[in-house]
Amino acid sequence: MTGPAARYDAVVVGGGHNGLVAAAYLARAGWSVLVLERRPVLGGAAISQQVFEGVDVRLSAYSYLVSLLPDRIVTDLDLSVTLLDRAVASYTPLVRDGAHGGLLIEREEGPATAASFHALTGGDAEFAGWQRFYGRLATLAEDLAPTLTEPLLGEAELAGRLRDRELWQDLRERPLADVVAAHLSDDVVRGIALTDGLIGTFADVHAADGLAGRCFLYHLIGNGTGRWRVPAGGMGAVSGAIATAARAAGAELVTGATVTAIETRADGVTVHWTDDDGTARAADAGFAVSGAAPAVLDELLDAAPAPRPSGSQLKVNMVLARLPRLRSGDDPHRAFSGTFHVDEAASQIDAAYAQAAAGRLPDVIPFEVYCHSLTDPTIVGGTGLHTLTLFGLHTPAELFSAYPAGTRDEAVARVVGQLDAYLAEPLLDCLARDADGRPCLQAASPLDVEASLAMPGGHIFHGDLSWPLAAEPTEAGSWGVATVHPRVVAASSGGTVRGGAVSGLGGFAAAQHLLGR
How far is 16 from 8, CA to CA, in rounded Å? Predict the structure, then answer.
């Protein structure tokens, strides 16, 4: 076990995927690296775990899909990661003119998608608008994605790399709702587009503050395609591969280590932590790399705290004995194989935001569902079961503060009832049972996420996302990882300019900053 006299080139605080990426790059460059992780497992939010007693299924419990992880990082670190494409991009159950139906959007949009749009809208104009909008976004993604693994560009330099500068400026300056409405007119179709601006972000899509626009951008530019894929073996396979790369390069990875303080000096740092048994330990290093949320880093440095972030998502993990039948009559194996949107029409998103902003749990909570086992059957181990993970929008942490468990249970009851409205059989009848005979359903509010992962406010991005460019001229050419002390660099999602989602970009930027010194 590491003792007080230990000395490293870098100590990484937090063994989430970003901390592990930083550790792997630094260790491969010959640095001595120590990673300290509070929890008993590595990976942070990118983990797979057996959630239900006696049910041999490994769920991606917190983060669900991969898009922003650059191929460069996978190649550089020789990661053994397989990312699987979903055959269906999305399916949206709906009721129109009293009849149940659904909007199907294939990953590769073909005749079935065109026919589904036509059945919904009665014409071809909406599908043409959809193709135009996402065609423009594809061009923007192709141009922006390579810049994410380069030093930060200034505004003019970045704009010079873009073929569709108008769309870039629209996303930055106009409300996201207006940008979407310029291409799409149907309430349901607009809502499907708008949801990418609201994942983990409590924002008014009609405001010009850029919150929704930034979130939307990051959801559409990953690897130049914006394609969201399922990691074979679950999210833990991604973190596991990065951890393997770090260990193979010589990094020391320690779990059960709660960092309590970071002392800074002109020539380095001392990182203090306690083991699971309460033993106090410390290590000196040339640098500290923080994979922790910025608010946590402020506490460790005894610095003035920044405003506390607030998460805005309801998470529900389930295991099903069978997929439920749909009232539309569509095949549930196809409908659930992509993102299954529920009550996410633009008007429903607006109503939910207004109620949540007024301090009320929305009467109708917009949410989406993912069934990873349809793409990756290995996670259910031949049991015949299915995983189902639900992500609710516009459920900010403040709504749960007065009655945490009661409000969470009410939110779950609402989303289950909403989903049942589109099912031919109750969802609860389709749930598997754990070893004690209880339904396999586990819910987490932002406060639960905070308690489990030490993410202040339960914010899955650690705070508001940033535009992927230098905010000031002096920042151009840097990696966007500076903190209040030159010997401490950020690697976390919210602490770096281009953090967010399971991307590894924060850890990559931290390592490039240090290696380039």
Answer: 20
